[in-house]
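pasting for ref
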Amino acid sequence: MITVTQNPSSPTSPGWGVGKKFTNYANNIITDWETAVEPQAMNVTDNNGAVCERVVYDEKTTINATILVQDGFTLPKVEDSLSVDGVAFYVTNVREVQSNKDFRKVVLTLERHKNFPKGAGK
């Protein structure tokens, strides 16, 4: 379960952000967290080309997380492995967002395939 605090006053207030942490970046605050699980499937056709069966051969979990980062934060690289609750995911996308009205943010997209060895790249 993810816990979100109602109306926090600042990023240093207890409970700011969601109740998730990346082992590799535990000192940064995660403000947004989205998890999607989707089957990796293939259609099987008969001799006439008609689809007769759908086979699920894997399951992909995708996480999109927005992190408020401090000065000196080193961005992870695509294909790096990050640990989420002790489970390895690989980084598929890294975006850095800066503005004069908000904190510096990094948006990470992570993926894990259930049947891929160790679930993550490298």
